[in-house]
Design brief:
Number of helices: 15
CATH superfamily: ABC transporter involved in vitamin B12 uptake, BtuC
Largest sheet: none
Structural class: mainly alpha
Helix content: over 70%
Shape: globular
Radius of gyration: 23 Å
CATH class: Mainly Alpha
Distance between the termini: 38 Å
Amino acid sequence: MSVESRAVPVQRGKHPDGPPVGPAALPRATRAGAAGRGAGLLLILLLLVLVGLLSVWVGTRGIPFTATWNALWNPDGSETSVIIHDYRIPRTLLGAVIGAALGLSGALMQALTRNPLADPGLLGIGLGSSAGVVAAISFLGIGSLLGQLWFAFAGAAVASVVVYLLGTSGRKVATPDRLVVAGAAITAVLYAFNSAVLLLDPRAFDEFRFWTVGSLAGRYYDVLQIVLPFVAVGLVVALALTPSLNALALGDRTGRALGVNVGRTRALGAAAVVLLCGAATAAAGPIGFVGLAVPHVARFLVGPDQRWVLAYSTLIAPVLLVGSDVLGRVIGAPGEIQVGIVTAFLGAPLFLALCRRRKLVML
């Protein structure tokens, strides 16, 4: 007797030998879980708003909260109003955008490679941006931040394309292992290139060292206007891939059986990572641990569902980055400590704590 002839028709939400199963069995639990995760997103969003207000208030120059609040809503051209609107607000907004880009790109990279220790650096994005800045300073004499930004983004894009081409050489689909190996090889080459150029050109080294530490200082609305479109496109592409990422987490073979085009999903995901992390790195320099640690915090809170992991990562990372920027201003007063240094000090213990609490797994 064939399998088809022995199959028993099952109505939606019912089992032939027992109580209802499937979507009809746990509607209340499912709704409760989604409602709880949605409430969590709202709480994190509220925390982001509070941290943003704190970032506008706290700075190297002390301004009373009442004066900050009045200048925030009633700009009058005074010195306090100029500090708030021309310096602190764009810095805060850029920190939020960069944090969202880093958190989302990290979660996307870990989902694409099914590697809990993956971050966007595996595609050579960080060192690709660095190589672009080094080339712009040393070979072309470009000293402006806006000029270096375009070269940083171009370097990230070129490095990522080369990694992806190496990962797909000889095959139609880039496997996670091949991408990691190709990324490691390109990273080593770019590191050698940067080191050689900087050692031979002390002037380039003096300019480059202020970019490579990772900072939001000195970034204004013009930088935000440049990176925002890239981050927006990357965000849309990443969120559109979430159903495919859930299937891909079960393995390439299972993903194909569920109707996922694995090659297209990885290509679009890699493009989104380049747009997100490339724009963030170009604008503020390399900032570590955000893309690595934040997705694990998100999975700890909501589980392995990539829809929620990506959403939570997009909001948790800005809280961490903007909060770290505020902390750097407080600790380093009357100067400041660059945000890349603070995130390293905060992110490393956080990541170690997650490692000790549970195994770093994707499912």
